[in-house]
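Problem: given the chain below (587 residues), write out its structure.
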Amino acid sequence: MSQVQLWTYLIVGVTFAMYIWIGYQNRVRDTKGFYVAGQGVPAVANGAATAADWMSAASFISMAGLISVLGFDGSIYLLGWTGGYVLLALLLAPYLRKFGKYTVPDFVGDRYYSQIARLFAAIATVLISLTYVAGQMRGVGIVFSRFLGVDIVVGVVIGMVIVAFFAVLGGMKGITWTQVAQYSVLIVAYMIPAVAIAGKLGLFPVPQIAFTFSDITQRLNALQVDLGFKEYTQPFQSKPMLDVFAITVALMVGTAGLPHVITRFYTTPSVRAARYSAGWALLFIALLYTTAPAIAAFARFNLINTLETATVARIEPGDKQDIYILQYPDGSEVTWATSWQQTGLLAFVDKDGDGHIALHPGTAFQGKDFKAANPDTANEVYFDNDIIVLANPEIAQLAPWVIALVAAGGLAAALSTASGLLLAMSSAVSHDIYYRILRPKATEYQRMIAGRSMIFVAILLAGYFGINPPGFVSQVVAMAFGLAAASNFPVILLGIFDKRANKYGAIYGILVGFGFTFAYIVANKFFGMPAWFLGISAEGIGAVGMVLNLVVCYVVSRMTAAPPEEIQELVESVRVPRGAEVAVTAH
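Solution.
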């Protein structure tokens, strides 16, 4: 067993034991604790939990990988996700907390005085969460397959068992305090390698400063051009401008409609605490998101330099592909290349037999058969975008304990978001459908059993889609954001700021916006339909669905009867800050 594996077993074992202990210590016996942690989470803790809930495997594992591969175009994920959180925190979160319910479908059902609207919002919540959680489970499988030497399927199952334990026992309370610990693990695991690699490259050992004020991007641009790529900082290389704009919008408004993040603001004691927790979360999120571009550039630079100077020592047969054993100029083995090839997420083919592996534009392999080299391109490398961050410390030849720490951080990011998503799915079915629609007289015990049972069902579904994902982590997550943008965001926005929005508008808005977006994504991803709407991809079509939802909801609401007076008064009371009426009267 290698030193990396020993350190990984140790650090992952300790962190998993901590998560299980925290979940057990915070187990709950009532629905308020299960769904909203008893609404007693302090602002700082809720900020850390929100950041962990928000920064998923896509943020930790995949985002920097996308920026590293796509260059400037990868920044759409950085801009969309950070901008979206600001939109949620400033525009929606305080009002939703003042409304005081448990879930997004709760708000939709009561605000639009309609069980049908509640049902549609609950169904949308389940589909959004299921799509999103698939990406988290895939991230768990990738980490386990590389660093613990187990199959991706086994890794996904292990992750499912761990999440099930603290989610079922503790509900939102257990998840919240576990996420506080997971944030601490993931941010330390993200920052330490970034600082160390900046130092090894001779840069100022603060990643944000090193990336902004050094010549690393100029050096990377020169390397890219020498290999036949466009400059790293050149925009719109991989996607047209309109699609880049659509994806950014979809990610932003999708963030503001994510059910598991919105629910976090229901766990604070007051509206004031919700505002403070949003500020803390933004600070905690910024630590990672301002580091990601630096990690992406460092990883790309080190990857190119390593492959350019390495030679092929020998080729060994493997189960999934031939394993190329590479060596550095000093004769030592490039161990990270050997290890990642064994996962099937990295592959080489020396097409010209020159003893070197060339990274050039173009695809290296046909389909999933890595042995079938594509002779039409000079590229001899295949690597999955999702390995970049995890392999980065190995490529930079950092200490084994740092490599293991990154593995633990990736697992923390994936598991923290997965737990929040599972609870969102469970709440939508057990609270909004089972209790609020089917059995309003259900006892506290029956509601708890329904909630915990639904977590088990959700975990099984999440595991299946984690093993058989419809794309790499960030692609899958981007589709979830598109669905949230086209369903939840418009009805929440109009529900808060438009007294005239009624149940007919909400129902038809969700049907049209969500239906169009879901059909477009499924047809494009699973049935090969081209991106026919102005060339907008499945990742960006949620922006179009959002506009359709807004327009339909607004127009239909004006064509039908106004909401009851008490609903309009409810909207006014949610929008007006507490105490404002007293101040006006005194004046």
